[in-house]
Specification:
With 219 residues, the protein is an all-beta fold. The protein folds into 2 domains: 9-96; 152-218. 0% of the residues lie in helices and 40% in strands. It has strands at 9-12, 15-16, 20-21, 42-49, 52-61, 66-67, 70-74, 83-84, 87-91, 120-122, 128-130, 152-160, 165-172, 178-187, 190-193, 197-203, 211-212, 217-218. The strands form 5 sheets. Strands 1, 3, 4, 5, 6, 7 and 9 form a 7-stranded antiparallel sheet that branches. Strands 12, 13, 14, 15 and 16 form a 5-stranded antiparallel sheet that branches.
């Protein structure tokens, strides 16, 4: 998969059909390097030279700021166009870079060995590599942890993995419908709850929780 970057468009004084030497950025644009193209990256390029055009992939070389040319489509019967010395070249997406219908497949170069069925991640340079790691098994536990004996409506709950505690906001479905909170401590596959505290001594309808990890506080 070719690398795509934003607003990379430069002039080139190169003539002929060979490797391009990239010049300065066009007004309002940036050089390939400033846009984030790294040495060795394969980019999707588009060349415009008067009424002629060329689309392809090329390998960017930071030393000498050059770009090779592998043509996929052009105004010269899909061959490299003969550059005049006053062309522009830019990075752009083509139809094959954008799967239609919200699906389809993407062809990419592998970074490292890939086995059949591996789950992969798309890297910033357009390559893909296998996601490493192991599956962690665990048990859910039983339903014996009952924090309230009355009919209860849970509004929200948040778990803090740094303290292994969960905060539950709830109200009983019978009058007076006060909003309450209760903290549970998770240990292995079990959880133990403390005593519930009334948060709002009035009829409550909706409440939500957030966790401020910097202060280790529920909000």
């Amino acid at each position: 998969m070719a690398v795509l970057v934003n607003r990379a468009k430069v002039a080139t004084s190169t003539t002929g059909t060979g490797t391009i030497t990239l010049g300065s950025a066009e007004d309002g644009y940036q050089t390939f390097a400033d846009a984030g193209v790294a040495n060795g990256d394969v980019v999707r390029y588009i060349i415009e030279d008067g009424s002629n055009f060329e689309i392809g992939t090329g390998t960017y070389t930071s030393s000498g700021t050059t770009l090779s040319r592998t043509v996929s489509e052009s105004s010269n019967s899909n061959n490299a166009i003969n550059l005049s010395g006053s062309a522009t070249v830019f990075v752009g997406a083509t139809a094959e870079d954008i799967p239609s219908g919200g699906g389809g497949s993407v062809t990419a170069v592998a970074s490292g060995a890939l086995a059949n069925g591996d789950t992969v991640v798309l890297n910033s340079n357009g390559t893909v590599s296998a996601i490493t790691g192991s599956e962690v098994a665990g048990s859910v536990g039983s339903e014996s942890s009952n924090f309230n004996s009355a009919n209860t409506e849970i509004h929200d709950a948040l778990f803090d993995p740094s303290t292994n505690k969960v905060l539950v906001l709830f109200k009983e479905t019978v009058s007076p419908n006060y909003l309450k909170g209760i903290v549970g401590t998770v240990s292995g596959s079990s959880i133990s709850f403390g005593s519930a505290a009334t948060i709002n001594s009035a009829a409550s309808y909706t409440a939500y929780l957030n966790n401020d990890s910097r202060q280790n506080k529920f909000l």
